[in-house]
Protein backbone atom coordinates (compact mmCIF):
# COMPACT_ATOMS: atom_id res chain seq x y z
CA UNK A 1 0.00 0.00 0.00
CA UNK A 2 1.35 3.46 -0.85
CA UNK A 3 1.81 5.68 2.18
CA UNK A 4 -0.66 8.55 2.67
CA UNK A 5 1.00 11.93 1.99
CA UNK A 6 0.46 14.83 4.35
CA UNK A 7 1.33 18.50 3.88
CA UNK A 8 1.87 20.70 6.95
CA UNK A 9 1.31 24.21 5.56
CA UNK A 10 1.49 26.34 8.76
CA UNK A 11 4.11 26.63 11.46
CA UNK A 12 3.53 23.68 13.76
CA UNK A 13 5.43 22.00 16.59
CA UNK A 14 7.85 19.41 15.10
CA UNK A 15 6.06 16.68 17.07
CA UNK A 16 3.36 16.73 14.37
CA UNK A 17 5.75 15.66 11.59
CA UNK A 18 7.28 13.05 13.90
CA UNK A 19 3.91 11.48 14.69
CA UNK A 20 2.88 11.41 11.02
CA UNK A 21 6.08 9.54 10.18
CA UNK A 22 5.71 7.12 13.10
CA UNK A 23 2.15 6.38 11.99
CA UNK A 24 3.14 5.49 8.44
CA UNK A 25 2.53 8.76 6.56
CA UNK A 26 4.94 10.66 4.32
CA UNK A 27 5.04 14.26 5.46
CA UNK A 28 6.23 17.55 3.94
CA UNK A 29 6.45 20.80 5.90
CA UNK A 30 6.10 23.73 3.49
CA UNK A 31 4.88 26.91 5.14
CA UNK A 32 4.25 30.47 3.99
CA UNK A 33 3.17 29.67 0.44
CA UNK A 34 0.82 31.86 -1.60
CA UNK A 35 -2.66 30.50 -2.45
CA UNK A 36 -1.46 29.92 -6.03
CA UNK A 37 1.52 27.88 -4.83
CA UNK A 38 -0.73 25.81 -2.58
CA UNK A 39 -3.19 25.22 -5.44
CA UNK A 40 -0.32 23.94 -7.58
CA UNK A 41 0.92 21.62 -4.82
CA UNK A 42 -2.16 20.33 -3.02
CA UNK A 43 -3.14 17.72 -5.64
CA UNK A 44 -0.33 15.45 -4.39
CA UNK A 45 -1.63 15.17 -0.83
CA UNK A 46 -4.12 13.03 1.11
CA UNK A 47 -3.98 15.20 4.23
CA UNK A 48 -3.47 18.91 4.94
CA UNK A 49 -2.49 20.04 8.46
CA UNK A 50 -3.02 23.75 9.17
CA UNK A 51 -3.32 26.46 11.83
CA UNK A 52 -5.00 29.82 11.12
CA UNK A 53 -2.66 31.17 8.45
CA UNK A 54 -3.66 28.79 5.63
CA UNK A 55 -6.99 29.79 4.12
CA UNK A 56 -8.54 26.65 2.66
CA UNK A 57 -10.79 28.13 0.00
CA UNK A 58 -12.99 26.40 -2.57
CA UNK A 59 -10.30 27.09 -5.20
CA UNK A 60 -7.77 25.13 -3.12
CA UNK A 61 -10.26 22.32 -2.51
CA UNK A 62 -11.08 22.14 -6.23
CA UNK A 63 -7.39 21.47 -6.90
CA UNK A 64 -7.13 18.95 -4.04
CA UNK A 65 -8.06 15.88 -6.03
CA UNK A 66 -6.59 13.36 -3.56
CA UNK A 67 -7.37 15.19 -0.34
CA UNK A 68 -9.22 13.17 2.30
CA UNK A 69 -8.71 15.15 5.49
CA UNK A 70 -7.91 18.67 6.69
CA UNK A 71 -6.66 18.84 10.28
CA UNK A 72 -6.71 22.14 12.18
CA UNK A 73 -4.10 22.20 14.96
CA UNK A 74 -6.29 24.46 17.06
CA UNK A 75 -9.94 25.35 17.47
CA UNK A 76 -11.32 27.90 15.00
CA UNK A 77 -12.04 26.60 11.51
CA UNK A 78 -13.39 29.81 10.02
CA UNK A 79 -10.38 29.72 7.65
CA UNK A 80 -11.72 26.51 6.05
CA UNK A 81 -14.62 26.47 3.59
CA UNK A 82 -16.36 23.58 5.36
CA UNK A 83 -19.38 23.36 3.02
CA UNK A 84 -16.99 23.09 0.04
CA UNK A 85 -14.90 20.46 1.88
CA UNK A 86 -18.02 18.48 2.79
CA UNK A 87 -19.36 18.67 -0.76
CA UNK A 88 -16.06 17.21 -1.90
CA UNK A 89 -16.06 14.51 0.76
CA UNK A 90 -13.08 15.88 2.69
CA UNK A 91 -13.20 15.39 6.46
CA UNK A 92 -12.42 18.55 8.46
CA UNK A 93 -11.20 17.99 12.02
CA UNK A 94 -9.92 20.28 14.77
CA UNK A 95 -8.44 19.86 18.24
CA UNK A 96 -11.15 21.43 20.39
CA UNK A 97 -9.39 21.42 23.79
CA UNK A 98 -5.61 21.48 23.22
CA UNK A 99 -5.16 25.26 23.42
CA UNK A 100 -8.15 26.32 25.52
CA UNK A 101 -6.34 26.79 28.84
CA UNK A 102 -3.59 28.75 27.11
CA UNK A 103 -6.08 31.02 25.34
CA UNK A 104 -8.06 31.57 28.53
CA UNK A 105 -4.80 32.55 30.28
CA UNK A 106 -4.07 35.03 27.49
CA UNK A 107 -7.48 36.66 28.02
CA UNK A 108 -6.74 36.98 31.75
CA UNK A 109 -3.26 38.35 30.96
CA UNK A 110 -4.80 40.99 28.67
CA UNK A 111 -7.37 41.86 31.33
CA UNK A 112 -4.57 42.64 33.80
CA UNK A 113 -2.56 44.42 31.11
CA UNK A 114 -5.57 46.71 30.56
CA UNK A 115 -6.33 47.16 34.26
CA UNK A 116 -2.77 48.27 35.02
CA UNK A 117 -1.75 49.65 31.58
CA UNK A 118 1.30 47.43 31.71
CA UNK A 119 2.41 47.71 28.04
CA UNK A 120 2.49 51.52 28.02
CA UNK A 121 4.01 51.74 31.50
CA UNK A 122 6.70 49.33 30.40
CA UNK A 123 7.43 51.27 27.20
CA UNK A 124 7.68 54.61 28.98
CA UNK A 125 9.78 53.26 31.83
CA UNK A 126 12.23 51.72 29.38
CA UNK A 127 12.29 55.04 27.52
CA UNK A 128 13.76 56.53 30.70
CA UNK A 129 10.64 58.52 31.75
CA UNK A 130 9.90 56.88 35.14
CA UNK A 131 6.21 57.89 34.82
CA UNK A 132 5.19 56.88 38.34
CA UNK A 133 2.23 59.27 38.56
CA UNK A 134 0.77 58.65 35.11
CA UNK A 135 -0.60 55.16 35.48
CA UNK A 136 -3.45 54.83 37.92
CA UNK A 137 -4.96 51.38 37.49
CA UNK A 138 -8.11 49.61 38.63
CA UNK A 139 -8.46 46.49 40.78
CA UNK A 140 -10.24 43.50 39.30
CA UNK A 141 -11.34 42.11 42.67
CA UNK A 142 -15.07 42.69 43.15
CA UNK A 143 -15.55 43.82 39.52
CA UNK A 144 -18.00 42.20 37.10
CA UNK A 145 -16.61 40.25 34.18
CA UNK A 146 -19.04 39.79 31.28
CA UNK A 147 -18.38 36.65 29.25
CA UNK A 148 -19.82 36.55 25.76
CA UNK A 149 -19.61 32.84 25.04
CA UNK A 150 -19.19 30.36 27.89
CA UNK A 151 -17.95 27.26 26.08
CA UNK A 152 -14.58 25.60 26.66
CA UNK A 153 -12.45 28.75 26.82
CA UNK A 154 -15.12 30.98 28.34
CA UNK A 155 -15.67 28.59 31.21
CA UNK A 156 -11.93 28.38 31.96
CA UNK A 157 -11.78 32.19 31.96
CA UNK A 158 -14.75 32.16 34.36
CA UNK A 159 -13.01 29.79 36.78
CA UNK A 160 -9.86 31.95 36.78
CA UNK A 161 -11.89 35.15 37.23
CA UNK A 162 -13.81 33.62 40.15
CA UNK A 163 -10.44 32.78 41.68
CA UNK A 164 -9.61 36.48 41.36
CA UNK A 165 -12.81 37.23 43.31
CA UNK A 166 -14.61 38.74 40.34
CA UNK A 167 -18.33 38.35 39.71
CA UNK A 168 -18.95 36.60 36.38
CA UNK A 169 -22.03 37.09 34.21
CA UNK A 170 -22.37 35.28 30.90
CA UNK A 171 -24.36 35.68 27.73
CA UNK A 172 -24.54 32.42 25.83
CA UNK A 173 -27.87 31.22 24.42
CA UNK A 174 -26.64 27.61 24.52
CA UNK A 175 -25.51 27.70 28.17
CA UNK A 176 -27.91 25.66 30.28
CA UNK A 177 -29.01 27.08 33.64
CA UNK A 178 -27.56 23.95 35.34
CA UNK A 179 -24.17 24.48 33.72
CA UNK A 180 -24.20 28.14 34.78
CA UNK A 181 -24.80 27.05 38.39
CA UNK A 182 -22.04 24.45 38.09
CA UNK A 183 -19.63 27.15 36.83
CA UNK A 184 -20.69 29.56 39.57
CA UNK A 185 -21.69 32.23 37.06
CA UNK A 186 -24.89 34.11 36.30
CA UNK A 187 -26.55 33.55 32.92
CA UNK A 188 -27.87 36.86 31.59
CA UNK A 189 -29.20 38.45 28.41
CA UNK A 190 -26.78 40.45 26.30
CA UNK A 191 -28.23 43.86 27.20
CA UNK A 192 -27.98 43.01 30.89
CA UNK A 193 -24.34 41.98 30.46
CA UNK A 194 -23.53 45.18 28.54
CA UNK A 195 -25.12 47.31 31.26
CA UNK A 196 -23.37 45.56 34.15
CA UNK A 197 -19.89 44.46 33.06
CA UNK A 198 -16.72 46.33 34.04
CA UNK A 199 -14.73 44.02 31.77
CA UNK A 200 -16.11 42.18 28.74
CA UNK A 201 -14.31 39.20 27.21
CA UNK A 202 -15.41 37.46 24.02
CA UNK A 203 -15.25 33.66 23.57
CA UNK A 204 -17.62 32.68 20.77
CA UNK A 205 -16.89 31.40 17.30
CA UNK A 206 -17.43 33.84 14.43
CA UNK A 207 -20.86 33.06 12.98
CA UNK A 208 -23.61 35.10 11.33
CA UNK A 209 -25.14 35.52 14.81
CA UNK A 210 -21.93 36.64 16.53
CA UNK A 211 -20.44 38.84 13.78
CA UNK A 212 -20.27 42.43 15.11
CA UNK A 213 -21.83 41.38 18.40
CA UNK A 214 -20.01 44.38 19.85
CA UNK A 215 -21.46 46.82 17.30
CA UNK A 216 -21.56 50.62 17.72
CA UNK A 217 -25.05 50.22 19.15
CA UNK A 218 -24.04 47.57 21.67
CA UNK A 219 -20.86 49.39 22.68
CA UNK A 220 -23.08 52.42 23.43
CA UNK A 221 -25.16 50.21 25.76
CA UNK A 222 -22.08 49.31 27.84
CA UNK A 223 -21.29 50.77 31.22
CA UNK A 224 -19.14 53.86 30.64
CA UNK A 225 -15.49 53.01 31.18
CA UNK A 226 -15.85 49.35 30.27
CA UNK A 227 -12.70 47.44 29.27
CA UNK A 228 -12.99 44.97 26.38
CA UNK A 229 -10.86 41.90 25.61
CA UNK A 230 -11.10 39.83 22.45
CA UNK A 231 -9.12 36.60 22.13
CA UNK A 232 -11.74 34.89 19.94
CA UNK A 233 -12.21 36.20 16.40
CA UNK A 234 -11.74 39.62 14.84
CA UNK A 235 -15.16 40.00 13.26
CA UNK A 236 -16.88 39.96 16.67
CA UNK A 237 -16.16 43.68 17.25
CA UNK A 238 -16.83 46.62 14.96
CA UNK A 239 -13.27 48.00 14.96
CA UNK A 240 -14.27 51.50 13.75
CA UNK A 241 -16.89 51.73 16.52
CA UNK A 242 -14.33 50.56 19.06
CA UNK A 243 -11.89 53.26 17.95
CA UNK A 244 -14.60 55.94 18.33
CA UNK A 245 -15.59 54.61 21.77
CA UNK A 246 -11.96 54.61 22.97
CA UNK A 247 -11.57 58.20 21.72
CA UNK A 248 -14.75 59.30 23.50
CA UNK A 249 -13.94 57.49 26.74
CA UNK A 250 -17.05 55.26 26.54
CA UNK A 251 -14.54 52.39 26.48
CA UNK A 252 -11.66 52.84 28.95
CA UNK A 253 -9.46 50.22 27.35
CA UNK A 254 -9.46 47.49 24.75
CA UNK A 255 -7.15 44.54 24.17
CA UNK A 256 -7.35 42.64 20.92
CA UNK A 257 -5.50 39.44 20.08
CA UNK A 258 -7.49 39.03 16.87
CA UNK A 259 -8.46 41.39 14.05
CA UNK A 260 -11.06 41.53 11.31
CA UNK A 261 -8.26 41.25 8.74
CA UNK A 262 -5.14 39.28 9.60
CA UNK A 263 -2.27 39.74 9.51
CA UNK A 264 -3.23 43.22 10.80
CA UNK A 265 -0.26 45.27 9.68
CA UNK A 266 -2.17 48.53 9.92
CA UNK A 267 -5.30 49.60 11.79
CA UNK A 268 -6.94 52.89 12.84
CA UNK A 269 -6.75 51.45 16.37
CA UNK A 270 -2.94 51.41 16.39
CA UNK A 271 -1.59 54.23 18.55
CA UNK A 272 -4.95 54.90 20.26
CA UNK A 273 -4.42 55.52 24.00
CA UNK A 274 -5.54 52.57 26.14
CA UNK A 275 -5.52 50.23 23.18
CA UNK A 276 -3.25 47.19 23.35
CA UNK A 277 -2.90 44.23 21.07
CA UNK A 278 -1.04 41.00 20.33
CA UNK A 279 -0.65 39.29 16.94
CA UNK A 280 -3.08 36.38 17.42
CA UNK A 281 -0.96 34.85 20.18
CA UNK A 282 -3.85 33.30 22.14
CA UNK A 283 -2.72 29.75 21.44
CA UNK A 284 1.00 30.43 21.39
CA UNK A 285 2.50 28.62 24.36
CA UNK A 286 4.86 25.67 24.26
CA UNK A 287 2.31 23.53 26.05
CA UNK A 288 -0.63 24.33 23.78
CA UNK A 289 1.39 23.99 20.58
CA UNK A 290 2.69 20.56 21.60
CA UNK A 291 -0.86 19.50 22.55
CA UNK A 292 -2.49 20.56 19.29
CA UNK A 293 0.36 19.30 17.08
CA UNK A 294 0.35 15.83 18.66
CA UNK A 295 -3.41 15.63 18.63
CA UNK A 296 -3.93 16.79 15.06
CA UNK A 297 -1.28 14.41 13.74
CA UNK A 298 -2.70 11.47 15.69
CA UNK A 299 -6.25 12.20 14.54
CA UNK A 300 -5.29 12.68 10.89
CA UNK A 301 -3.06 9.59 10.80
CA UNK A 302 -5.85 7.54 12.45
CA UNK A 303 -8.18 8.56 9.67
CA UNK A 304 -5.72 8.10 6.82
CA UNK A 305 -4.31 4.80 8.06
CA UNK A 306 -7.18 3.11 10.00
CA UNK A 307 -10.33 5.05 9.10
CA UNK A 308 -10.83 6.30 12.70
CA UNK A 309 -12.61 9.67 12.91
CA UNK A 310 -12.19 11.98 15.93
CA UNK A 311 -13.30 15.61 16.32
CA UNK A 312 -14.54 15.91 12.77
CA UNK A 313 -16.83 18.85 12.10
CA UNK A 314 -18.51 17.24 9.11
CA UNK A 315 -18.64 13.55 9.92
CA UNK A 316 -19.70 11.30 12.84
CA UNK A 317 -16.91 10.14 15.16
CA UNK A 318 -15.50 6.67 14.81
CA UNK A 319 -12.70 5.58 17.12
CA UNK A 320 -9.64 3.72 15.82
CA UNK A 321 -10.73 0.75 18.03
CA UNK A 322 -14.26 0.80 16.59
CA UNK A 323 -13.11 1.20 13.00
CA UNK A 324 -12.04 -2.44 12.35
CA UNK A 325 -15.25 -3.77 13.98
CA UNK A 326 -17.43 -1.40 12.00
CA UNK A 327 -15.64 -1.90 8.70
CA UNK A 328 -17.62 -4.98 7.54
CA UNK A 329 -20.85 -3.31 8.71
CA UNK A 330 -20.04 -0.24 6.68
CA UNK A 331 -19.37 -2.41 3.63
CA UNK A 332 -22.73 -4.15 4.19
CA UNK A 333 -24.49 -0.81 4.78
CA UNK A 334 -23.03 0.67 1.63
CA UNK A 335 -24.08 -2.38 -0.44
CA UNK A 336 -27.62 -2.30 0.95
CA UNK A 337 -27.86 1.45 0.31
CA UNK A 338 -26.59 0.95 -3.21
CA UNK A 339 -29.03 -1.93 -3.82
CA UNK A 340 -32.10 0.13 -2.84
CA UNK A 341 -30.68 3.11 -4.75
CA UNK A 342 -30.41 1.00 -7.91
CA UNK A 343 -33.76 -0.74 -7.50
CA UNK A 344 -35.93 2.27 -6.68
CA UNK A 345 -36.84 5.21 -8.88
CA UNK A 346 -38.61 8.52 -8.38
CA UNK A 347 -38.27 10.82 -5.40
CA UNK A 348 -37.46 9.18 -2.07
CA UNK A 349 -38.65 11.31 0.84
CA UNK A 350 -37.36 8.97 3.55
CA UNK A 351 -34.59 6.43 4.19
CA UNK A 352 -34.76 4.39 7.41
CA UNK A 353 -31.84 2.41 8.77
CA UNK A 354 -32.63 -0.27 11.31
CA UNK A 355 -29.88 -2.03 13.31
CA UNK A 356 -30.95 -5.27 14.97
CA UNK A 357 -29.20 -7.68 17.35
CA UNK A 358 -25.39 -7.23 17.62
CA UNK A 359 -25.52 -4.32 15.14
CA UNK A 360 -27.69 -2.36 17.59
CA UNK A 361 -24.77 -2.21 20.04
CA UNK A 362 -22.58 -0.35 17.57
CA UNK A 363 -22.16 3.33 16.78
CA UNK A 364 -24.91 3.71 14.19
CA UNK A 365 -23.84 7.10 12.74
CA UNK A 366 -21.09 5.76 10.46
CA UNK A 367 -23.42 2.93 9.37
CA UNK A 368 -26.07 5.50 8.45
CA UNK A 369 -23.50 7.58 6.56
CA UNK A 370 -22.41 4.45 4.65
CA UNK A 371 -26.01 3.55 3.71
CA UNK A 372 -26.58 7.09 2.42
CA UNK A 373 -23.29 7.05 0.52
CA UNK A 374 -24.25 3.79 -1.22
CA UNK A 375 -27.76 5.03 -1.90
CA UNK A 376 -26.74 8.43 -3.32
CA UNK A 377 -23.69 7.21 -5.22
CA UNK A 378 -26.06 5.64 -7.71
CA UNK A 379 -26.77 9.21 -8.85
CA UNK A 380 -23.28 10.69 -8.52
CA UNK A 381 -19.96 8.94 -8.10
CA UNK A 382 -18.50 11.82 -6.08
CA UNK A 383 -20.66 10.93 -3.07
CA UNK A 384 -18.85 9.48 -0.05
CA UNK A 385 -19.54 9.02 3.67
CA UNK A 386 -18.58 12.60 4.44
CA UNK A 387 -20.83 14.39 1.99
CA UNK A 388 -23.71 11.85 1.80
CA UNK A 389 -25.60 13.09 4.92
CA UNK A 390 -25.32 16.69 3.65
CA UNK A 391 -26.53 15.76 0.16
CA UNK A 392 -29.44 13.80 1.66
CA UNK A 393 -30.39 16.87 3.69
CA UNK A 394 -30.12 19.13 0.66
CA UNK A 395 -32.45 16.81 -1.24
CA UNK A 396 -34.98 16.87 1.59
CA UNK A 397 -34.56 13.16 2.42
CA UNK A 398 -35.58 12.39 5.98
CA UNK A 399 -33.16 9.92 7.58
CA UNK A 400 -34.42 7.71 10.40
CA UNK A 401 -32.35 5.45 12.64
CA UNK A 402 -33.86 2.63 14.70
CA UNK A 403 -32.11 0.16 17.02
CA UNK A 404 -33.56 -3.13 18.29
CA UNK A 405 -31.20 -4.93 20.61
CA UNK A 406 -33.10 -8.23 20.51
CA UNK A 407 -31.86 -10.40 17.63
CA UNK A 408 -34.39 -11.89 15.17
CA UNK A 409 -33.56 -14.69 12.69
CA UNK A 410 -29.99 -13.39 12.43
CA UNK A 411 -27.64 -12.50 15.30
CA UNK A 412 -26.96 -9.20 13.57
CA UNK A 413 -28.95 -7.40 10.90
CA UNK A 414 -29.03 -4.09 9.06
CA UNK A 415 -32.28 -3.22 7.33
CA UNK A 416 -32.62 -0.31 4.91
CA UNK A 417 -36.12 0.85 4.03
CA UNK A 418 -37.06 3.61 1.64
CA UNK A 419 -40.37 5.32 1.20
CA UNK A 420 -41.31 5.33 -2.48
CA UNK A 421 -44.40 6.38 -4.42
CA UNK A 422 -45.37 2.69 -4.40
CA UNK A 423 -44.95 2.32 -0.63
CA UNK A 424 -42.17 1.23 1.72
CA UNK A 425 -39.46 -1.00 0.17
CA UNK A 426 -36.88 -2.73 2.32
CA UNK A 427 -33.74 -4.83 2.01
CA UNK A 428 -31.78 -6.44 4.83
CA UNK A 429 -28.37 -7.98 5.28
CA UNK A 430 -26.24 -9.71 7.87
CA UNK A 431 -22.59 -10.59 8.39
CA UNK A 432 -21.47 -14.19 8.09
CA UNK A 433 -18.64 -14.98 10.54
CA UNK A 434 -18.94 -11.33 11.66
CA UNK A 435 -17.05 -10.33 8.55
CA UNK A 436 -18.77 -11.25 5.29
CA UNK A 437 -21.71 -9.10 4.18
CA UNK A 438 -24.72 -11.02 2.83
CA UNK A 439 -28.07 -9.83 1.56
CA UNK A 440 -30.77 -11.90 3.30
CA UNK A 441 -34.00 -10.17 2.35
CA UNK A 442 -35.03 -8.27 -0.74
CA UNK A 443 -38.41 -6.48 -0.81
CA UNK A 444 -39.96 -9.02 1.54
CA UNK A 445 -38.45 -12.10 -0.16
CA UNK A 446 -35.81 -14.17 1.63
CA UNK A 447 -32.62 -14.61 -0.39
CA UNK A 448 -28.98 -15.19 0.42
CA UNK A 449 -26.61 -13.34 -1.84
CA UNK A 450 -23.26 -11.64 -1.88
CA UNK A 451 -23.58 -8.18 -3.44
CA UNK A 452 -20.41 -7.77 -5.47
CA UNK A 453 -19.23 -6.86 -8.95
CA UNK A 454 -21.69 -7.10 -11.83
CA UNK A 455 -25.08 -8.60 -11.12
CA UNK A 456 -28.42 -9.17 -12.74
CA UNK A 457 -31.72 -8.84 -10.93
CA UNK A 458 -34.81 -10.56 -12.27
CA UNK A 459 -38.35 -10.69 -10.87
CA UNK A 460 -40.47 -13.42 -12.42
CA UNK A 461 -43.40 -15.76 -11.94
CA UNK A 462 -42.04 -18.91 -10.31
CA UNK A 463 -42.39 -21.55 -13.06
CA UNK A 464 -40.51 -24.69 -14.16
CA UNK A 465 -37.83 -24.25 -16.82
CA UNK A 466 -37.35 -20.54 -16.17
CA UNK A 467 -33.85 -20.75 -14.74
CA UNK A 468 -32.72 -22.90 -17.66
CA UNK A 469 -33.96 -20.30 -20.14
CA UNK A 470 -32.05 -17.47 -18.41
CA UNK A 471 -28.92 -19.63 -18.23
CA UNK A 472 -29.12 -20.35 -21.94
CA UNK A 473 -29.67 -16.67 -22.77
CA UNK A 474 -26.59 -15.58 -20.86
CA UNK A 475 -24.53 -18.49 -22.15
CA UNK A 476 -25.35 -17.58 -25.74
CA UNK A 477 -24.30 -13.98 -25.03
CA UNK A 478 -20.95 -15.27 -23.70
CA UNK A 479 -21.67 -14.10 -20.14
CA UNK A 480 -20.33 -16.37 -17.44
CA UNK A 481 -22.47 -16.79 -14.32
CA UNK A 482 -20.59 -16.71 -10.99
CA UNK A 483 -23.34 -17.28 -8.41
CA UNK A 484 -27.03 -17.93 -8.66
CA UNK A 485 -29.34 -16.83 -5.83
CA UNK A 486 -33.03 -17.54 -5.77
CA UNK A 487 -35.86 -16.51 -3.51
CA UNK A 488 -39.62 -16.58 -3.74
CA UNK A 489 -42.65 -15.46 -1.78
CA UNK A 490 -44.40 -18.85 -2.17
CA UNK A 491 -44.21 -21.81 -4.55
CA UNK A 492 -45.64 -20.64 -7.89
CA UNK A 493 -45.69 -16.97 -6.68
CA UNK A 494 -43.34 -14.08 -7.34
CA UNK A 495 -39.65 -15.02 -7.34
CA UNK A 496 -36.41 -13.05 -7.49
CA UNK A 497 -33.21 -14.15 -9.10
CA UNK A 498 -29.91 -12.46 -8.31
CA UNK A 499 -27.05 -13.55 -10.53
CA UNK A 500 -23.47 -12.49 -10.25
CA UNK A 501 -21.80 -12.39 -13.63
CA UNK A 502 -18.16 -12.04 -14.66
CA UNK A 503 -18.76 -9.13 -17.06
CA UNK A 504 -21.27 -6.27 -17.46
CA UNK A 505 -24.60 -7.40 -18.95
CA UNK A 506 -25.19 -5.46 -22.20
CA UNK A 507 -28.51 -3.68 -22.79
CA UNK A 508 -29.55 -6.10 -25.58
CA UNK A 509 -29.24 -9.07 -23.19
CA UNK A 510 -31.29 -7.22 -20.55
CA UNK A 511 -33.94 -6.54 -23.23
CA UNK A 512 -33.92 -10.19 -24.34
CA UNK A 513 -34.33 -11.33 -20.71
CA UNK A 514 -37.38 -9.06 -20.42
CA UNK A 515 -38.97 -10.99 -23.29
CA UNK A 516 -38.58 -14.36 -21.56
CA UNK A 517 -42.10 -15.55 -20.61
CA UNK A 518 -42.95 -14.95 -16.92
CA UNK A 519 -40.38 -12.15 -16.46
CA UNK A 520 -41.74 -9.02 -14.74
CA UNK A 521 -38.61 -6.94 -14.22
CA UNK A 522 -34.92 -7.17 -15.20
CA UNK A 523 -32.08 -4.89 -14.21
CA UNK A 524 -28.30 -4.89 -14.37
CA UNK A 525 -26.73 -4.00 -11.03
CA UNK A 526 -23.17 -3.07 -10.10
CA UNK A 527 -21.43 -2.97 -6.72
N1 LIG B 1 -6.87 33.77 19.93
C1 LIG B 1 -6.57 32.53 19.72
O1 LIG B 1 -5.45 32.20 19.41
C2 LIG B 1 -7.61 31.50 19.88
C3 LIG B 1 -8.91 31.77 19.61
N2 LIG B 1 -9.86 30.80 19.76
C4 LIG B 1 -11.24 31.13 19.47
O2 LIG B 1 -12.00 31.17 20.66
C5 LIG B 1 -13.36 30.93 20.35
C6 LIG B 1 -14.02 30.08 21.40
O3 LIG B 1 -13.43 28.81 21.47
P1 LIG B 1 -14.03 27.67 22.43
O4 LIG B 1 -14.38 28.21 23.74
O5 LIG B 1 -13.10 26.54 22.35
O6 LIG B 1 -15.36 27.31 21.64
P2 LIG B 1 -16.63 26.57 22.21
O7 LIG B 1 -17.37 26.08 21.03
O8 LIG B 1 -16.28 25.62 23.29
O9 LIG B 1 -17.47 27.75 22.88
C7 LIG B 1 -18.10 28.74 22.14
C8 LIG B 1 -19.30 29.19 22.92
O10 LIG B 1 -19.92 30.25 22.20
C9 LIG B 1 -21.30 30.10 22.38
N3 LIG B 1 -22.05 30.81 21.36
C10 LIG B 1 -22.34 30.42 20.10
N4 LIG B 1 -23.09 31.34 19.48
C11 LIG B 1 -23.27 32.33 20.37
C12 LIG B 1 -23.95 33.57 20.32
N5 LIG B 1 -24.62 33.95 19.22
N6 LIG B 1 -23.92 34.38 21.40
C13 LIG B 1 -23.25 33.99 22.52
N7 LIG B 1 -22.60 32.82 22.64
C14 LIG B 1 -22.60 32.01 21.57
C15 LIG B 1 -21.52 28.61 22.30
O11 LIG B 1 -22.75 28.24 22.88
C16 LIG B 1 -20.34 28.08 23.07
O12 LIG B 1 -20.65 27.88 24.43
C17 LIG B 1 -13.36 30.36 18.95
O13 LIG B 1 -13.74 31.36 18.04
C18 LIG B 1 -11.94 30.04 18.70
O14 LIG B 1 -11.62 30.08 17.37
C19 LIG B 1 -9.54 29.55 20.20
C20 LIG B 1 -8.24 29.23 20.49
C21 LIG B 1 -7.16 30.19 20.32
O1 LIG C 1 -7.24 27.65 17.74
C1 LIG C 1 -7.68 28.74 17.35
O2 LIG C 1 -8.88 28.96 17.09
C2 LIG C 1 -6.77 29.85 17.17
O3 LIG C 1 -7.21 30.93 16.87
C3 LIG C 1 -5.33 29.62 17.27
O4 LIG C 1 -4.78 30.06 16.07
P1 LIG C 1 -3.27 29.68 15.65
O5 LIG C 1 -3.21 28.20 15.62
O6 LIG C 1 -2.39 30.25 16.69
O7 LIG C 1 -3.08 30.29 14.32
Automatic annotation (TrEMBL):
Annotated ranges, domain D-3-phosphoglycerate dehydrogenase ASB: 325-442
Reactions catalysed according to its record: (2R)-3-phosphoglycerate + NAD(+) = 3-phosphooxypyruvate + NADH + H(+)
Domain D-isomer specific 2-hydroxyacid dehydrogenase catalytic: start-end pairs: 6-314
GO biological process, one term: L-serine biosynthetic process
Entry-linked PROSITE patterns: D_2_HYDROXYACID_DH_2 (PS00670), D_2_HYDROXYACID_DH_3 (PS00671)
Swiss-Prot/TrEMBL keywords: Amino-acid biosynthesis, NAD, Oxidoreductase, Serine biosynthesis
Molecular function per GO: NAD binding; phosphoglycerate dehydrogenase activity
Keyword DNA-binding (UniProt): no
Matches recorded under Pfam families: 2-Hacid_dh (PF00389), 2-Hacid_dh_C (PF02826), PGDH_inter (PF19304)
EC number: 1.1.1.95
Record domain D-isomer specific 2-hydroxyacid dehydrogenase NAD-binding: where: 108-282
Top-level class of the enzyme under EC nomenclature: oxidoreductase
Recorded coiled-coil stretches: none
Family to which this protein belongs: Belongs to the D-isomer specific 2-hydroxyacid dehydrogenase family.
The protein's name in its UniProt record: D-3-phosphoglycerate dehydrogenase
Species assigned in the record: Novosphingobium ginsenosidimutans
